[in-house]
Design brief:
- With 164 residues, the protein is mainly beta.
- It has a single domain, classed as Porin (Beta Barrel).
- Helices cover 13% and strands 60% of the residues.
């Protein structure tokens, strides 16, 4: 499992860097860093994550992120390649909707069996998301809802801070 995780991390990093390189014109794009936390409903567990955010076309943003979910019987984390569109609200807050691929890594043991072997799994999914957050400022809070469509579909609520 460890080799597959490292390979997936390198592939994801390469894709993100490629997207940022091909989408950025001669003028350098701002890349914001963010942290997020929240709750995965089906896993019944909290999560913490980190993200990058950069625009690549008017109102369009690339938002790659990673989330670690604190499940009881093992580990669960996701690599996400989200893209979203910011609606023109003429308000001090941003409203967005988007989607993107998800790679879900899990290493879990069934809840009712302490002597059972762990089940390693790498699953692919699609994120559907919508959010609202501060549009300006050095620190921009936000809230975002997400549905991860995969073998184990999840509803996720996230609260985050983006740093400009």
């Amino acid at each position: 499992m460890r080799t597959a995780v490292l390979r997936a991390l390198w592939i994801a990093a390469g894709i993100v860097l490629g997207l940022l390189q091909t989408s950025a014109p001669a003028a350098a794009r701002d890349i914001d860093f963010g942290v997020r936390g929240g709750f995965y409903d089906d896993a019944d567990a909290a999560f913490l994550g980190a993200e990058l955010l950069t625009d690549f076309y008017p109102h369009w943003f690339v938002n790659p992120n990673i989330e670690y979910v604190f499940v009881d019987n093992g580990s669960l984390f996701t690599l996400n390649g989200d893209v979203h569109y910011d609606f023109d609200t003429h308000a001090p807050f941003a409203v967005w909707a988007g989607a993107g691929p998800a790679v879900i890594f899990s290493d879990r043991r069934p809840d009712d069996c302490h002597n059972c072997d762990r089940e390693d799994d790498i699953d692919l999914g699609i994120n559907l998301l919508a959010g609202v957050g501060a549009k300006r400022g050095a620190i921009r809070p936000y809230v975002q809802g997400k549905v991860v469509l995969s073998n184990d579909t999840e509803a996720v609520i996230a609260f985050g801070l983006r740093f400009y």
